[in-house]
Amino acid sequence: MAVARTRCVTLIGVTGHTVEVEADVGHGLAGTHLIGLLDTAINEARDRVRSALLNSRFEWPDARITVSLFPASLPKRGSIFDLAIAIAVLGAAGAVPAQRIAQPFFLGELGLDGRVRPVRGVLPAALAAARAGARTIVVPALNATEAALVPELAVLSVGSLAELVERLREDEPHRLPATIAAPSPTPGDARRAGESGGEDGRPRLDLRDVAGQATGRKALEVCAAGGHNLWMLGPPGTGKTMLAERLPTLLPPLEREQALEATAIHSVAGTLPPDRPLLDRPPFVAPHHTATVAAVVGGGSGPVRPGAVSLAHQGVLFLDEAPEFSTSVLDSLRQPLESGTVTVARAAGTVTFPAQFMLVLAANPCPCGEAGTPGHSCRCTPTARRRYLARLSGPLLDRIDVKVRVARATRAELMADRHVAESSRTVAERVRSARERALKRLVGTPWRNNAEVSSAALHTDFRLPARALAPLHKGLDLGTLSARGVDRVIRVAWTIADLAGKDRPDESDTSAALAMWLGVD
């Protein structure tokens, strides 16, 4: 009888922290004791682990078993520790060589029959293991491809506890064998796959499907090129939702680091598709208007979970029928729009999630949706119309770069666009060229697109001549522009210039950007 040690990972938000699992099988009254600031799921592990060992034909030590999860001050949650606890107990009982389990990380939930079941958050856990210097990680078979996204690690996938113990007993005494999962797809693979189908195998959405909305399509192109936020106002059936859903088709594939960030968030949330271990396309998240603040920005009554704004990290957050969302939900978007992160404070601690996304709002002009539509009479009172759009507060709309009215298309416009409407591939190529121009200009800075450029840099390193700023000075004098609005118009002007292949915006670009910013006034 002795002490055996192995390692696991606890997740706080989307950040993994190394936990050392120690098991002591010694003298005393027979029983199992788990210590180390544990939640209910880990306290229940003693029963799962005991049944898994017995049903896998291993003896359960008839002694006092103490399992400690170090550091004791770090909160530990979930069933991810089951496999590590079982292996530590077997090591302390002499059933497996203790020296072989000290360095690898063991992640997984145990079924009562000894099967190793998949768990959430394997990617951020594997990243934490790599940072801790681990060379091998043991994960459930269904999580193997996700763990293999971390190139520094050798991944051993197991389907049952008995299979793992056999591997630990039979192979070389100082080396745990590894099964490397399939390599992750490259951005080029993602681009080629996206041309033939969507993420779920269905035909991919295409901007060509939207007919008769030239203004909306142009606004979409500008937002995709610069990473800007968008508000579309118009009656029902005009294509607002169709336009929003096709915005991700104009965006370039995620780079490796961006893809890992987005994938880690979806892994923790449990929304990662089992057949797609790496999210290489910008995510599109569209919560229902009944969503709560916790569902949108993150939180919950138990473990803090990422919300819609974090699930949309590096992608698009779409709020359809935006005025139907509660005021508290809409106002909670203001802070992540500025900082690119969400901080959720609870009594047990504070968790920060990344939340850098493009916000797209869609709204009807009034509750009935017919205000200002030729040939249709609005049934809403003036007070009801004011209250409806007033739910979108001024500070929130001040953070929206592009605002457009989407009107019902005429029959002539619909028929003409069937033949001349551009495809997503065509527009995406212009977006790619514009982004490359911006990247070249922003080399050596922390920013990657025009929407991220700080206000200080806009008025120093990227200051425009007085003639180009003339339309904005007039807007300030008339009170139609705020200081924040000036900065957002300048960012859009840079994007318009990038799309046109210009080195610097001129007066026509700032005028066009101002028109987009004031588009629904």
Description:
This protein has 521 residues and is of the alpha/beta class. It is built from 22 helices and 16 strands. It has helices at residues 40-43, 45-55, 82-92, 122-131, 144-147, 161-170, 187-196, 214-226, 240-245, 256-269, 293-297, 308-311, 327-331, 334-339, 382-390, 394-397, 411-420, 424-441, 455-458, 466-478, 483-500, 507-517; strands at residues 3-12, 15-26, 31-35, 64-70, 105-106, 109-110, 116-117, 136-140, 154-158, 230-233, 284-285, 316-319, 341-346, 349-354, 358-363, 402-405. The strands form five sheets. The protein has a five-stranded parallel beta sheet. A hairpin with a 2-residue loop joins β1 (3-12) and β2 (15-26). α8 (214-226) packs across α21 and α20 packs parallel to α22. Mean pLDDT is 89; it is low at 180-201.
